[in-house]
Amino acid sequence: MTTQMLRKGGTVLTHDDLGHVAPKKLDLLIQDSSIANIEEDVSTRRARVVDCTGKIVSPDFVDTHHHTWQTQLMGAYADGTLLKYFPTG
């Protein structure tokens, strides 16, 4: 079964030909977890509508920032302060 969600009236950050950000008030139709349509006035009868007026519509953000090397130190300074964690010199 196809599922649809319509994000209505939100601000979508697009880019012009020079790469500058150009915010536009657009509707965004999502069908089965993929973007199916982005236009000024999308209409559909089957979609669950979410009013996004006054909001920025964007894809999910993934935080890829991590410090793998710090996992070795986990707990080593559990009773210490931040100043003890960093070496002085």
TrEMBL record:
Domain of life, source organism: Eukaryota
GO MF term list: hydrolase activity, acting on carbon-nitrogen (but not peptide) bonds
InterPro entries: Metal-dep_hydrolase_composite
SUPFAM superfamilies listed in its UniProt record: Composite domain of metallo-dependent hydrolases (SSF51338)
Name of protein: Uncharacterized protein
Organism, scientific name: Rhinocladiella mackenziei CBS 650.93
